[in-house]
Amino acid sequence: MSILKTMARVLLSLVAADFSRRLLSSRAVGESALPKDLNEIRRLFLTIGQDEQRNIYPGRLRVEKARGLSDEERRVEASFAALLTWGLMAYVKEYCRRWNNVLNTDNAREFSEDYNHDKESRARYARAVHEPAGALIKTIWNEMVRMPNRSEHNFVMFLAGGAGSGKTTAVEDLPDLSQFRSAAQIIYDTTMSGLSSSTRKVEEARAHGKSVLLLYVHRPYEKATRGMIERALREGRTVPARVLAEDHFNAQRTFLSLHEKYADDDDFVFLVVDNSGERGQAAIEEVDFLSSVLYNNLGEVIRNVENIVKSEYRERAGTGREIPLYVYRAILGEDV
Q1: Global pTM?
Q2: Among 13, 16, 108, 146, which lies 20 to 30 A Cα-Cα from 302?
Q3: pLDDT at 32 over 70
Q4: What is the Cα–Cα distance from 313 to 319, expressed in whole angstroms?
């Protein structure tokens, strides 16, 4: 085992131990009143899920209720929120064991049995498990970022870019970036589509003495949409068309805004990868490259993404590479 991997495992064991101490010594609002039995917590959360006057499930995670869920999706959300709240310490430890220092909401979704049953359930319940999974990732981040690291690898690597951009493969295919990934104390794999939340995360990293590497992976949304469809066929993981379009549109602006704000700070490094070509053709570019491919009309991007999905659905019919109706509906909505 390499020295870097050994350091990472030691760090993560400290995170889990420190998190356990914090959890035992502190109580979030409403947590002390929660039942101890999982089934009782689940019944409580199911009731809260149907209460339109309540927007947050109680407990340390404080999972926000997603908007616009069906009754079945709300049941899945409430059950998953109850499970993570009930077994929080165990799930933090298990997450760190399975995914080490890589924080990604998609990983945390796999703790939901409703979601992870098969490809169809992954497509159908992706929205339902998003908020509980995200709350778990935020909780781990809050603890992990506080851990001191006095080595030269005391930095956080943020991976940015819309769904289907190929962030993981692009980093793996570029040796220089792969070395950064191996050396980082924390890797936060996200879209960075929200400016306020992204700014908050990088400020939290700096407040705890971390340097920050922001890596944006650009792939045209047309190719990203088709890549997302292929992934959905393999794994069942889908992204709603509107969300994919908004994330690609907003992530560009977030990254450029952060660059404008922090470019002169020696503790920040900004890198852009052009992943427009085929596998193995990704290339590191200057930040100005992203400005040259900036999308200017969100409505147009949304329409084009939706039209690509519809076109792929029609053209694949009868070819043996059909898009299942459950995937199509998960991307475009149940009413299609």
Answers
A1: 0.88
A2: 108
A3: no
A4: 11
User: How many Cα atoms are found within 13 Å in the side-chain-facing hemisphere of 294?
Assistant: 14
Please return the burial class of 206, using the count of CB atoms within 10 Å of its CB with bins 0-12, 13-18 and 19+. Answer: middle
Q: How many CB atoms lie within 10 A of CB 136?
A: 26
Q: How many CB atoms lie within 10 A of CB 192?
A: 27
Map residue 214 onto helix, strand or coil.
Answer: strand
Output b/e per residue, 235-251; b: 16+ Cβ within 10 A: ebbbbbbbbbbbbbbbb
171 pLDDT band, cuts 50/70/90, is: confident
Cβ–Cβ under 8 Å, residues 135 and 84: yes
| Contact assessment for residue 298 and residue 246, using Cβ atoms and an 8 Å cutoff | yes
- Rounded-to-integer distance, Cα 265 and Cα 252, Å: 20
Q: Buried (b) or exposed (e) across 180-191, using 16+ Cβ within 10 A?
A: bbebbbbbbbbb
Determine how many CB atoms are found less than 10 A away from the CB of residue 75.
19
